[in-house]
């Protein structure tokens, strides 16, 4: 349906249609992007401003073991989150796609409601559960501990002693990498399920039957028919989970405790407390590059197989 | 032999199927348990959310009397309203151009249009903050609105383009055969037909704007606190039942927004792609 503008009038109309967005994106997106790159080669001024220069000092500083460790942890947390979302989200999408059509819309609606809820609130909900005086610890040191006490009095067994000891102190869930991963999985699971669902729902089931007619067993027909045919959903879902996990700020800030645990927090502190804009700019640029390269490789792999 | 084979097959089916069902139920429990806990504790009479001390609406009352919160809601509505309006108009215009015309540099422009969607929001926040500082713009509602428009144009364009992809061009030709001029064709044929897509895009922009924390946080100044910023500072101070009440109320609003988007989808057939 696309045509080359034929007359001067159509050219003028085309310019009219794209000019506002082009202007906005050039001035408030592309220019700031180039600016960040330029500033990342600069240095922190004496009073917190930017001294322009052309040094790789900020990028060299990135290879300091302190930052490398945080970067490694960020990658690990983002990858773990993506894998967990995939292995739990794909079956969930499959479950929804194989329900009767009148159920599917309701199930999708139930999936979308948490997704449309403010991300801060969803993270806060986990804070309520995971913190030291949170609900999980309340059940652990309260309900479970009392139940074990009662059990040990009624049925004396040697195992109770150890279990009682374990439940007498609260679990330190808050402030761990595990807490961050749970928060991220909770935040981005629908991002995985929705594209997987779209791919599975489009799947032509006669192809699966054909595979089974040709004596493929369940595992074979899944690995060689269903999975390759729904790969587009898997790739899209993984990218949609990986990118925000890599750049996460809110989740590690609220669930990760006091220290800077992920790159997002490091960037934040460079801008809000250390006032070292050039270094913060350099880290953001590294993060963007990693994310873009990772996404491109993943898309390439996904479309090849 | 044959019947045995069939029966074995069926038993296998139900085994995998049952596992899927259990997993499905567990998945939905995982999604809803934290929310349910949040809502239940918003009615808890105890200030310390350690135990149930009876039902109360006090937290909702004290939340509604919070002046800072009221001004945060006002700021949020100003930001979301104006950024939605601007980005919906611009995004729809650019979607029309991208779906209909071929031009030099279109591929590059397409990439530029998609980039704000895939870039991590902390990176975009940093970019905009540095830009505003160097441009000596005073941080406040205006800079927040500029930033929200910068990411919302792309989302609106994607949603409207999805709608335009199914547009039947012969309808426009028919209108012009009936001597409608170009403006009449646009206002009376094209626009009404793509309206569900535009509304879907606007709704998405509005939701993204209301929800945004990171970019807003970096581009806001004194006196321009929005609702997510207010919630964040409250959460940072400590868990209180007022936050639970506020969260429950926002949950209710987002449910209403989901319903609205579904109604729009029903009216238009595939207006919104939630991705």
Task: Write a brief structural summary.
The complex is a heterodimer of chains A (305) and B (275). Helices cover 77% and strands 1% of the residues of chain A.
Describe this structure in words.
The complex is a heterodimer of chains A (about 300) and B (about 280). With about 300 residues, chain A is an all-alpha fold. Chain A has a domain at about 60-115 and about 175-305: Orthogonal Bundle (MetI-like fold), CATH 1.10.3720. Chain A has helices at about 10-40, 55-60, 65-95, 100-115, 120-130, 135-155, 160-170, 175-200, 205-215, 220-230, 230-245, 250-255, 265-270, 275-305, and strands at about 45, 50. Chain A has a two-stranded antiparallel ribbon. Chain B folds into two domains: about 1-40; about 60-270, Orthogonal Bundle (MetI-like fold). Chain B has eleven helices and no strands. At the A-B interface, helix 1, helix 3, helix 4, helix 5 and helix 8 of A face helix 1, helix 3, helix 4, helix 5 and helix 6 of B.
Write the topology of this structure.
The complex is a heterodimer of chains A (305) and B (275).
Chain A: H1 8-40, E1 43-44, E2 50-51, H2 57-62, H3 65-97, H4 101-115, H5 119-130, H6 135-154, H7 159-168, H8 177-202, H9 205-213, H10 218-229, H11 231-246, H12 250-255, H13 263-272, H14 277-304
Antiparallel strand pairs in A: 1-2
Helix pairs in contact in A: 1-14, 3-8, 3-11, 4-8, 5-8, 6-7, 8-11, 9-10, 11-14, 13-14
Chain B: H1 2-41, H2 58-64, H3 67-100, H4 106-118, H5 121-134, H6 141-164, H7 169-177, H8 182-211, H9 214-219, H10 227-237, H11 241-268
Helix pairs in contact in B: 1-11, 2-11, 3-6, 3-8, 3-10, 4-6, 6-8, 7-8, 8-11
The CATH topology of the largest domain in chain B comes to MetI-like fold
Q: What is the count of DSSP helices of chain B, taking H or I runs of 4+ residues?
A: 11
Name of the level-1 CATH class of the largest domain in chain B:
Mainly Alpha
Number of helices of chain A: 14
Write down how many β-strands of chain B occur, each being a DSSP E stretch of 2 or more residues: 0
Can you say what the CATH homologous superfamily of the largest domain in chain B is? MetI-like
- Give the rounded overall mean pLDDT of chain B: 84
**Spatial shape of chain B:** globular
**Outline of chain A, from the CA principal axes?**
flat
Based on the coordinates given, report the CATH architecture of the largest domain in chain B: Orthogonal Bundle
Count of β-strands of chain A? 2
Order of helices and strands of chain A: HEEHHHHHHHHHHHHH
**Low-pLDDT sequence parts of chain A:** none
Q: Give the distance, in angstroms, between the N- and C-terminal Cα atoms of chain B.
A: 49 Å
The biggest beta sheet of chain B reads: none
Q: Looking at the chains present, what oligomeric state does this protein adopt?
A: heterodimer
CATH class of the domain at 59-117 and 177-305 in chain A: Mainly Alpha
Q: Judging by the overall fold, what is the CATH architecture of the domain at 59-117 and 177-305 in chain A?
A: Orthogonal Bundle
The pair of chains with the biggest contact is: A-B, 89 and 85 residues
Helical residues, percent of chain A:
over 70%
- Averaging pLDDT over every residue of chain A, what do you get? 85
